[in-house]
């Protein structure tokens, strides 16, 4: 690809709330070119008209493999941005890599085993892939602040809140945060009493080094996460609040640009900053 060539981008999940914002961001980016829009609604309609930015001459289709094959045929470095559903994301990523299209994935819900399998597949194909549980730079800063605070607190719990149309729980961001804290090599929340749940799940899910995660799903929220630390006589709450999906777009565009230079899978936006 020459320095003046634009990065061809396929958006999978284009008609969803997140996908619509990504379409706008790609269309307005001077170094990118939208070449495909995959969705389940508005089939055959121009995606630019669907998202309200005018005609882009890209019709919505539900045939991902045809679009991937065409993108790979027309360019050496196409990218797929996927924000679909946990039930199909694994197959979408494998299909993209098989066609030589570099996946940038914001869909959460992949298991650790699936991510490991995809890493092997991407490595064998020497194809870059980025899986980002969250595209917000603010979230990365929240996680880094939590890592710093964890050095001084033994007790921590995570509360994550999302809109009630989110399919998976806990969120990928909460799992990633708990994973980062667990990798510090220390144990959290030493038991002081023998707990008993009168309702199953009342104390949330447990991840890694005994870190509790609580998930809330209510309308009126885009995304919010709180990491709450406690010690004798004090608490520390680190919170990130996404009030609009536009906050994710700088991370999406960064990943589209960065994935071109990769030959393997990268998990987490923080590794690219």
Automatic annotation (TrEMBL):
Binding-site list for NAD(+): 13-18, 106-108, 132-135
GO BP terms in the entry: diaminopimelate biosynthetic process; lysine biosynthetic process via diaminopimelate
Pathway: Amino-acid biosynthesis; L-lysine biosynthesis via DAP pathway; (S)-tetrahydrodipicolinate from L-aspartate: step 4/4
GO cellular component: cytosol
GO MF annotation terms: 4-hydroxy-tetrahydrodipicolinate reductase; NAD binding; NADP binding; oxidoreductase activity, acting on CH or CH2 groups, NAD or NADP as acceptor
UniProt-listed Enzyme Commission number(s): 1.17.1.8
Domain annotation Dihydrodipicolinate reductase N-terminal: ranges: 7-135
Binding, (S)-2,3,4,5-tetrahydrodipicolinate: 163, 172-173
Keyword Amino-acid biosynthesis found: yes
Catalytic residues (positions): 162 (proton donor/acceptor), 166 (proton donor)
Keyword set includes Acyltransferase: no
Catalytic activity: (S)-2,3,4,5-tetrahydrodipicolinate + NADP(+) + H2O = (2S,4S)-4-hydroxy-2,3,4,5-tetrahydrodipicolinate + NADPH + H(+); (S)-2,3,4,5-tetrahydrodipicolinate + NAD(+) + H2O = (2S,4S)-4-hydroxy-2,3,4,5-tetrahydrodipicolinate + NADH + H(+)
SUPFAM superfamilies: Glyceraldehyde-3-phosphate dehydrogenase-like, C-terminal domain, NAD(P)-binding Rossmann-fold domains
Keywords: Amino-acid biosynthesis, Cytoplasm, Diaminopimelate biosynthesis, Lysine biosynthesis, NAD, NADP, Oxidoreductase
Subcellular location as annotated: Cytoplasm
CDD domains tied to this protein: DHDPR_N
Domain Dihydrodipicolinate reductase C-terminal residue range list: 138-273
Protein family membership: Belongs to the DapB family.
Function in brief: Catalyzes the conversion of 4-hydroxy-tetrahydrodipicolinate (HTPA) to tetrahydrodipicolinate.
Subunit (UniProt): Homotetramer.
Protein name, entry field: 4-hydroxy-tetrahydrodipicolinate reductase
Organism: Pseudanabaena catenata USMAC16
Encoding gene, per UniProt annotation: dapB
């Amino acid at each position: 690809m020459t320095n003046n060539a634009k990065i061809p981008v396929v958006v999978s999940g284009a008609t969803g709330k997140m996908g619509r914002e990504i379409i706008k961001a790609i269309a307005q980016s001077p170094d990118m070119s939208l070449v495909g829009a995959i969705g389940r609604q508005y089939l055959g309609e121009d995606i630019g008209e669907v998202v309200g930015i005018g005609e882009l001459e890209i019709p919505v289709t539900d045939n991902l493999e045809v679009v991937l094959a065409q993108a790979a045929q027309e360019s050496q470095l196409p990218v797929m941005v996927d924000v679909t559903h946990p039930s199909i994301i694994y197959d979408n990523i494998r299909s993209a890599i098989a066609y030589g299209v570099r996946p940038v994935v914001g869909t959460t819900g992949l298991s650790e085993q699936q991510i490991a399998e995809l890493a092997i597949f991407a490595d064998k194909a020497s194809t870059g892939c980025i899986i980002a549980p969250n595209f917000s730079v603010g979230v990365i800063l929240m996680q880094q602040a939590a890592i710093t605070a964890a050095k001084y607190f033994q007790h921590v719990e995570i509360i994550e809140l999302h809109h009630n149309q989110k399919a998976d729980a806990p969120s990928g961001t909460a799992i990633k945060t708990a994973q980062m804290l667990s990798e510090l090599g220390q144990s959290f929340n030493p038991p002081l009493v023998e707990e008993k749940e009168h309702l199953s799940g009342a104390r949330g899910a447990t991840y890694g080094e005994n870190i509790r995660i609580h998930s809330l799903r209510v309308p009126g929220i885009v995304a919010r996460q709180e990491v709450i630390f406690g010690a004798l006589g004090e608490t520390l709450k680190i919170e990130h609040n996404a009030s609009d999906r536009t906050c994710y777009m700088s991370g999406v565009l960064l990943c589209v640009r960065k994935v071109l230079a990769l030959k393997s899978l990268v998990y987490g936006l923080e590794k690219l900053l």
